[in-house]
Amino acid sequence: MPFPNIDPIAFSIGPLAIHWYGLAYVAGILLGWAYARRLAANDSLWPGNASPMTKTQLDDFIVWAALGVVLGGRLGYIFFYDLSAVLHDPIRAVEIWNGGMSFHGGLTGTTIAMIIFARRNAIPIWSLFDIVAAVVPFGLFFGRIANFINGELWGRLTDVPWAVVFPTGGPFARHPSQLYEAGLEGIVLLLVLAALVYGMRALKSPGFITGVFVCGYALSRIFLEFFREPDAQLGYLLGTNWLTMGMILSSPMILLGLWAILRARRQAAPQL
């Protein structure tokens, strides 16, 4: 099927062009913030039936989160995927439309922001991790939709009926892997976490939701890398025709997520 050829520029205000990619980040952050406020307002979801943070604190944190996502995401992409090109042409570092952002970098940047913010505001760090983890799929969903609109990060060659011929991918039918990621990393992961939050009251075990999110994202990303074309400047790694940078960066996350889950279970055990 042909690419829908959606203009990457949503609208313009004079000389200022507003891209769908930027709007996707705004939508993800704002919807995540609204959902986080609902979670924070529901005392029954938290240990001791008392929310560990206020809506005002969450309102203040949104700025920290945005900086962590944008700065961490861009720096992560540069260091993990595009360092040689940026060293050759430093102005490329600020061209976010040229390569985009790295989830793993954004996760690192946001984690640093959370640690600093939690310490400054006397918020239990694992509870802040949990509330952010519960809402991150909003950003993942909108980010992948924006990747599709931009015709970037497309999938490997395929002959499935829903394959797409992307304008920058040559005259070849490819997996619309951005949509696969939007569905699995965004919608499915959001629903799983919501079921744990509301159905199992998982926020009462600080760190559990964080662990499930980290494991869930890592497993989803590794699986979907088999459908996604690796970045051209890196290709497949270690002489293989399957191993990608996304797989390498995601693999340690599985162990980290399992550790967080087990830690949360151990901490909650005396309360059972």
UniProtKB/TrEMBL annotation:
Keywords: Cell inner membrane, Cell membrane, Membrane, Transferase, Transmembrane, Transmembrane helix. Its EC number is 2.5.1.145. GO terms for cellular component: plasma membrane. PROSITE patterns: LGT. One of its GO terms (molecular function) is phosphatidylglycerol-prolipoprotein diacylglyceryl transferase activity. A 1,2-diacyl-sn-glycero-3-phospho-(1'-sn-glycerol) binds at residue 144. Signal peptide: none annotated. Catalyzes the transfer of the diacylglyceryl group from phosphatidylglycerol to the sulfhydryl group of the N-terminal cysteine of a prolipoprotein, the first step in the formation of mature lipoproteins. This is Phosphatidylglycerol--prolipoprotein diacylglyceryl transferase. The lineage of its organism: Bacteria, Pseudomonadati, Pseudomonadota, Alphaproteobacteria, Hyphomicrobiales. The gene is lgt.
